[in-house]
Design a protein that fits this description.
Length: 187
């Protein structure tokens, strides 16, 4: 038997997080025993811990995306400089900033180093993108494990809420049952 879920509001980094508490009728001791055995070696987490972990994982993914975007900009800058230097006489002087020190070199010395740097940055970007995809999969698994819903996620777009919820209920029924009401809502 499910009871209505009260909503607790937590303030976290200037945002309101709404955490739905899970209330169980009379069999709370049975629920805690079965949930601890189902969880295996991991201790049961409170709703606040689940939200904090989810927010931390989202922040890690955002920082990876930010770093990947920054490296893409560096690649574009390197490409622009390489294309410009290819049109210049190889014996011409050019200046390069190395560790905060401006160093005078020739174009033929700088061009291979720039191409090598661009290649290394491309490899680093690929590595970060792979890590970001893995973090996305981990985040999705975590959301499904704790039934985390983002605010506005369950609302229908354009066609109305009825179709959006029927689609969600059909997905739930395909997975073996409805989990509505027993989750965490994160803004």
């Amino acid at each position: 038997m499910r009871l209505p879920l009260p909503v607790k509001k937590n303030f976290h980094m200037g945002r309101v997080l709404q955490v739905h508490s899970i209330k169980m009728a009379a069999n709370s001791s049975t629920f805690s025993k079965s949930s601890s055995s189902a969880a295996g070696k991991q201790p049961a987490q409170s709703a606040e811990q689940v939200v904090a972990t989810f927010q931390r994982m989202r922040q890690e993914q955002r920082s990876m995306a930010s770093k990947a975007a920054e490296l893409e900009m560096d690649i574009n800058e390197h490409s622009l400089v390489i294309e410009t230097l290819k049109e210049v006489d190889p014996s011409r002087k050019c200046y390069r900033l190395v560790g905060g020190v401006l160093v005078e070199r020739t174009v033929k010395e700088v061009l291979p180093a720039l191409e090598n740097n661009k290649e290394q940055i491309s490899k680093a970007t690929e590595s970060i993108n792979i890590q970001m995809q893995a973090k996305g999969r981990e985040l999705t698994e975590y959301r499904e494990r704790y039934n985390i819903r983002l605010v506005g996620e369950g609302e229908g777009e354009g066609e109305g809420e009825g179709q959006g919820q029927s689609g969600a209920s059909s997905r739930d029924s395909e997975r073996g049952g409805s989990k509505s009401g027993a989750g965490v809502l994160v803004s």
